[in-house]
């Protein structure tokens, strides 16, 4: 039997209301380059310390490990409503027909029924098996409107609560805003010397 996890009654983290009126914790745990060992060893501690927002992506390769940690936490008494889980749609899946299979894989790996926030990871499409950084010919046309329409369907079907973007230029953001029926709730930007 899983040991009960004690949650702080009032975590010391501020939240912000998104366009949907859902609250997003101001501080979250990013899982890029965390590795499965780190996920397993620190997840309980970070939840006990007051973290409620876990930020991950299929591309990070840790969603299955996070899913096991989430399942253990919930078996130990953490309620799903107390957590805020973000994931991202990877560049190779930036076609309308790949959005739904990608979110289904993410939900299966995370062992969840819904995400709080689903983001377009980068505003360009990559060929399957593309290098990092991509080589000439590996960056493909991106059907922004078609992909965004599929993201909007996920909100309408309660598969995700909010949708957003990462690393968009102002020009690409303006284009998205001109066609969006559901506005992006978040624009996450990578900043730092380690990126």
Number of domains: 1
Major sheet: arrangement of strands: 3-4-5-6-9-10
Seen as an oligomer or otherwise, the chain set is single chain
What would CATH call the class? Alpha Beta
Calculate Rg over CA atoms: 17 Å
Description of the structure:
With 195 residues, the protein is an alpha/beta fold. It has one domain: TIM Barrel (Alpha-Beta Barrel). 33% of the residues lie in helices and 19% in strands. The strands form 3 sheets. Strands 3-4-5-6-9-10 form a 6-stranded parallel β-sheet, with helices on one face. A two-stranded antiparallel ribbon has the order 1-2. Helix 1 runs parallel beside helix 2 (63-75) and helix 3 crosses helix 4 (144-156). It is globular, with a radius of gyration of 17 Å. The mean pLDDT is 84.
Write the layout of secondary structure elements.
Layout: E1 15-17, E2 23-25, E3 28-30, H1 35-48, E4 53-55, H2 63-75, E5 84-89, H3 96-110, E6 115-120, E7 125-126, E8 139-140, H4 144-156, E9 160-166, H5 170-179, E10 187-188
Parallel strand pairs: 3-4, 4-5, 5-6, 6-9, 9-10
Antiparallel strand pairs: 1-2, 7-8
Compact overview of the structure:
This protein is α/β, with parallel strands linked by helices and 195 residues long. The chain has helices at residues 35-48, 63-75, 96-110, 144-156, 170-179; strands at residues 15-17, 23-25, 28-30, 53-55, 84-89, 115-120, 125-126, 139-140, 160-166, 187-188. Strand 4 (53-55), helix 2 (63-75) and strand 5 form a beta-alpha-beta unit.
């Amino acid at each position: 039997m899983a040991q009960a996890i004690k949650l702080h009654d009032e975590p010391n983290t501020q939240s912000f209301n998104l366009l949907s009126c859902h609250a997003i914790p101001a501080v979250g745990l990013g899982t890029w380059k965390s590795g499965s060992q780190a996920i397993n060893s620190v997840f309980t501690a970070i939840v006990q310390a007051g973290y409620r927002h876990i930020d991950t992506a299929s591309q990070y390769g840790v969603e299955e490990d996070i899913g096991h940690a989430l399942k253990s936490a919930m078996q130990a008494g953490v309620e799903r409503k107390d957590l805020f889980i973000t994931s991202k749609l990877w560049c190779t899946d930036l076609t309308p027909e790949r959005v739904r299979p990608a979110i289904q894989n993410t939900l299966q790996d995370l062992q969840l029924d819904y995400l709080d926030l689903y983001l377009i990871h980068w505003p360009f499409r990559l060929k399957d098996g593309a290098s990092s950084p991509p080589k000439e010919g590996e960056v493909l046309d991106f059907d922004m409107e078609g992909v965004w329409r599929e993201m909007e369907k996920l909100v309408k079907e309660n598969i995700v609560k909010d949708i957003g973007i990462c690393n968009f230029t102002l020009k690409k953001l303006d284009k998205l805003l001109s066609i969006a029926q559901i506005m992006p709730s978040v624009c996450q930007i990578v900043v730092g010397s380690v990126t």
